[in-house]
Structure formats: structure tokens, C-alpha cells
Amino acid sequence: MRYFKLENSASPTPEELDITTTEILFHDISGLGFDEETDFASVGSVWRLNSVSYAQKPVSGKICFTDRKGTTPYTKYTKFKDFIDKPPLTLVYYPEGPESICYRKKVRVTKLEKTELDKYGVLDCGIDFTPYTPWYEVVKAKNGGEIVENDTGWVFGDGDSNPPLVFEPAAGTNAIPTKFRNEVRAPVDLYSDADNDSPVKITIYGPVVNPSWSHYVNDRLIASGGFDGNSPLSLSASERLVIDNTEGEYAMTVYSNIAAPRNVYSLRDFDLQCFFTMQKGKNTVIVSSPVTSAIKVEVEGHIHYATV
Fold first, then answer.
1. Do 173 and 269 belong to one domain?
2. What is the pTM of this model?
3. How many domains does the chain have?
4. Of the residues 83, 98, 133, the one at which a domain ends
5. What pLDDT was estimated at residue 152?
6. Is the pLDDT of residue 154 over 50?
């Protein structure tokens, strides 16, 4: 049996609500697939496809509230309204039951009806979840903070990687460089099976000095990021840098255990990509630092699917 939960954005700790129970049940569901918005132009007696984009299709259904466990359906309805008043929400979908893989969709409730109790004492209310995102699967990986290669030697890599620190690769090779002179490198691998590009969040933990980051897809360099040479950034042991495009915005923020977050987007090197999107296959994110003896990195990808 398919299963649904909701998560809200309550501060400081988001809340979770099971909506596949005997007390609150999301049912009569539609909108789990996808719609395309297309633009065609006539060319003689045939049509040419100009553009395709996914339509913003609500996930709709009904929320059923019962009087089990001594709480009236109207009380449950009020508590549910309080829960969804902390948007954005995440609709979590388990296609094969609560122990199966789950998919997520950022949503907002744009319709919640309220009816009279039926003859069984049940309150059954129509609801629309309007999405901010497609369905996505969260994948995460981290390097654990170990010391990665740091010596004065040289290795072969692909010819696009931070010249002149790396020689051209030998004929027929396309290896990711793993050692640079006086530089620590922390690689993290994620895998995507989707044809769509998918957003990525990178978290770099201090202490670290002037970090930079690179993205490889199937061992080929795709993009690099870092800070402007006139604005290098160092993180203390109580700080972490988050480079994030999973929320629909591009953000670079330093979070601290002892101070307020600070926006460092303006310090980025605007000649570099900085924000990455996963592609199909193996995605390797490598964080580098010229000074630090160890780097702890976590990478989170949101693999987007048209339907699940």
C-alpha cells in the first residue's frame, strides 16, 4: 500500500505528520503523474515542437479525519491546519509502503475544504498540494573528514584541471587527479539514474582555508567553484559553508555554532560556475584547500523525476 507523510518548516525543528493512518488519511489521490506544457509552430502541413516544460500540477485528494483515540475530527482538523501553517511543506511519498524508497516534493496547501461530519462521524475534506519542485529522491554522501592526499608530488589528470599544477594525461586516459602540490583534496561520489539535471547542496566543515570545489561527471571535469582572489574565505572549527541550489535559489552561506549565519554569495568567483547540477551517472565533487590538513565534506543531491 502506498504511504504518505508531511513535513513542515517549523523552527527550530521541522515537524513530521503521518497522513496514512486510521485517524488522518490522505485518499482519492490524483496528480502523481506529470503534465507537459508544449509550444508548437506550423511548418507547412506539419508541426514543429518549439519548447517543452513541466506544468505545475497539484497533487489533489481528500483528507479524512476520524474521532479515534477520543479526539474529535474538528480538533484534528484544527491541529492539521496549524501544522500546514508552517510552509513550505514536503510531501513524502512511499510507492511500495513505509519501508520502501521514498520520493519528495516541496509543496504548499492551496486548498483545504471543510465539510460537515458524515453519518459515520467522519470529516472528509478536499485538499490541493501545489508543488514548488518535481518529485525528487535525496541522495547523500560524505568523506568523513579524513586526511586526503597532500604532498609535493605530481600525478596525471585530465588537461582541464587547474593548470599548471597537473600535466596533460597520457594518451587515451581521462583520470581525475588525486594529488596536487601542497594541496588537500576531498572527493565525494554521488550517482544519478535520471536524465534530468538535478540540484546539489555542498557542505564544507571548518577549519578550512580558502576552499574551492570541482564537479566531475563520469570522470570528466564539468564545472569549478571558489572565491574571488581578493576575498579568500577561511572557516573556523565552529563554522560550515553551504553552497546550495536545492531550494530554487542560489545561496552561499556560512553557518556557525556561536554566531548568526552570514551570506558570502558576493565573495564568490563570478567567472566560475560555483553551483552544480547532477547529471546521469557518477558525479564526483572534489573540495580542495591549499593549507588545511583535512577536509570534511557532505554532498546532498536531489534527483528530479517527472513522475514516480
1. yes
2. 0.79
3. 2
4. 133
5. 34
6. no
The alpha carbon of 211 is separated from its chain's Cα centroid by a whole number of angstroms, namely: 21
**C-alpha to C-alpha distance for 106 and 246, rounded to whole angstroms:** 11
- CA 238 – CA 154 distance, rounded (Å): 33
- The answer to whether residues 80 and 63 touch, using CB atoms and an 8 Å cutoff, is yes
Check: CB of residue 303 under 8 Å from CB of residue 199.
no
Q: For residue 186, which of 243, 231, 141 has the smallest C-alpha distance? A: 141
Task: Count the neighbouring beta carbons within 10 Å of the beta carbon of residue 162.
Answer: 15
| Residue 74 host element (H or E) | helix 73-84
The grid cell for 242 is 553551504
Q: How far apart are CA 214 and CA 243, in angstroms?
A: 12
DSSP letter for 86, please.
S
Retrieve residue 115's grid coordinates: 465539510
Which residues is 125 bridged to in the sheet?
63
C-alpha 124/C-alpha 77 separation (Å) is 10
Q: How far is CA 122 from CA 71, 72, 155, in A?
A: 12, 9, 69
Residue 74 belongs to what domain range? 3-133
Dihedral (CA of 108, 111, 117, 118) sign? negative
Q: Give yes or no for a contact between 36 and 52, defined as CB atoms under 8 angstroms apart.
A: yes
pLDDT band (50, 70, 90) for residue 182 = low
Same domain, 187 and 116: no
Among 107-121, 126-140, 282-296, the minimum mean pLDDT is found in 282-296
Pair (225, 147) in one structural domain: yes
Last residue of a domain, which of 73, 103, 133?
A: 133
Q: How far apart are CA 217 and CA 195, in angstroms?
A: 13
Closest CA to 267 of 256, 277, 253, 257: 253
CA–CA separation, 278 vs 195, rounded Å? Answer: 10
